[in-house]
Amino acid sequence: MTKTSDADQLIAQARKYKEEREKNYREKALKLYPWVCGRCTREFTHTNLRELTVHHKNHNHDDNPQNGSNWELLCLYCHDNEHARFEEQVRYGSDVLSSEQQTAGATFNPFAGLKGNMGNTE
Questions:
Q1: What domain range includes position 38?
Q2: What's the predicted TM-score (pTM) here?
Q3: How buried is residue 121: exposed, middle or buried, by Cβ count under 10 Å (0-12/13-18/19+)?
Q4: Cα–Cα distance between 115 and 122 in angstroms, integer?
């Protein structure tokens, strides 16, 4: 066999494995959960069910517990957004502010000395 045919065969096997794995957990998730996006609450029927995806909460596609605890159903748009946010977090650090940062007010007031600098105009 040539290197090209070996690579093609390996790629075909990987795709087949991925499709089989997805089929198993997708079917289980669709039986476990209502057909509603977990983020935007869009509802799905048999006609548009292909737009509802199974998202792995911990981003590990090999972690598929039978009880579905690592899955949530997301529409295509929310699923893409979730993965974009995850990629951003991996690349640039956490985008979530701590509770102290969320409750802390501004510490700088650009107008603090304005009244004193304006003097008396009467």
A1: 10-94
A2: 0.59
A3: exposed
A4: 13
Residue 122: inside a domain, yes or no? no
Task: In whole angstroms, give the CA distance from residue 86 to residue 59.
Answer: 9
**pLDDT, mean of residues 25-41:** 92
Segment 77-86 mean pLDDT: 93
- CATH number of the domain that 82 lies in? 3.40.1800
Report the alpha-carbon distance of residue 45 to residue 51 in Å, rounded.
10
pLDDT by residue (tens digit) across 35-66?
999 999 999 999 999 999 999 999 998 898 98
Total domains, the chain = 1
Closest listed residue to residue 60, CA positions, set 73, 75, 72, 70: 70
* Structural domain contains residue 76: yes
Residue 3 domain-assigned? no
Q: 52 has which bridge partners?
A: 75
